[in-house]
Design goal:
Elements: H1 3-12, H2 15-26, E1 35-40, E2 43-52, E3 59-70, H3 74-82, E4 95-104, E5 115-123, E6 134-143, E7 151-158, H4 166-169, E8 179-180, E9 182-192, E10 198-207, H5 214-244
Parallel strand pairs: 6-8
Antiparallel strand pairs: 1-2, 2-3, 3-10, 4-5, 5-6, 6-7, 7-9, 9-10
Helix pairs in contact: 3-5
């Protein structure tokens, strides 16, 4: 692992943040305190207020958690998430820009170095002109050599451009009027169920910034379970197709 890489990782993923995420991962086996917001077609959405000091802010935010079963192997499900560029080929067209600013992904065999990347993404506008596009600048930490060989994890958080090198910042193309959204934390948890099925849990707390109509939030929450599952299984298909090329 290079000296620069070893210096950058703690900046992107402070120990306090990782400890907080580890606590949340350990709580995945229980539904205590979680309120069921939606449950349809074997996909559930839960909500729960969580106080996090992960980003040096002792603040309580609503946290959402989605739980479902993906028709894919553990590796297919995990790699489909890791290859963020697949979102550009998604049928929903919810993301219009995905740029990998830094890529420090390593294989399980090379487990001396942490696996992570830095992404810049911009969403498309919803079907209303009163809601602006959102931009995301995040760091993602990939954990494949977890205590359980049947589990893979991705931890994600928003970071500031002040943490990036000047040359890296030049790769970012902001759009005038777009709103910077903040991912306080996001945990994607993958667990092997069988050779063809993987349990997928997505837990996050996100501040979308700006203004979003309550009716749009409500509509999105009700359609989220099916939409997440459909988009994810579509990404798995795109990932499989990419391996054939």
């Amino acid at each position: 692992m290079s000296q620069q890489l070893s210096n950058n990782f703690p900046k992107y993923f402070p120990e306090q943040f990782l400890n907080f995420c580890n606590e949340q991962i350990n709580s995945f086996s229980t539904n205590d305190g979680w309120k069921v917001e939606a449950d349809k077609d074997n996909v559930k959405v839960f909500s729960k207020p969580i106080t996090s000091t992960a980003n040096n802010q002792n603040k309580t935010n609503n946290c959402y958690r989605i739980s479902t079963i993906i028709q894919a192997t553990l590796d297919e499900a995990f790699q489909s998430m890791r290859h963020a560029e697949l979102k550009l080929q998604s049928k929903s067209k919810s993301i219009e820009t995905v740029v990998t600013l830094e890529d420090h992904y390593t294989t399980v065999e090379n487990n001396q170095a942490p696996s992570f990347d830095i992404l810049f993404q911009r969403s498309t506008s919803p079907s209303t002109l009163i809601v602006l596009k959102r931009e995301f600048l995040t760091a993602r930490y990939f954990i494949e050599n977890f205590n359980n060989p049947n589990v893979k994890i991705c931890i994600e958080r928003s970071i500031g451009e002040d943490l990036l090198e000047k040359e890296t910042c030049k790769k970012i193309s902001h759009e005038e009027g777009a709103v910077r959204a903040v991912i306080h934390f996001q945990i994607a948890f993958f667990e092997k169920i069988s050779e063809t099925q993987t349990k997928f849990e997505l837990m996050n707390s996100i501040d979308m910034g700006g203004w979003i109509p309550a009716s749009l939030i409500s509509m999105a929450l009700k359609s989220a379970p099916q939409k997440v599952k459909e988009e994810y299984e579509n990404s798995v298909k795109l990932y499989r197709d990419s391996l054939k090329q």
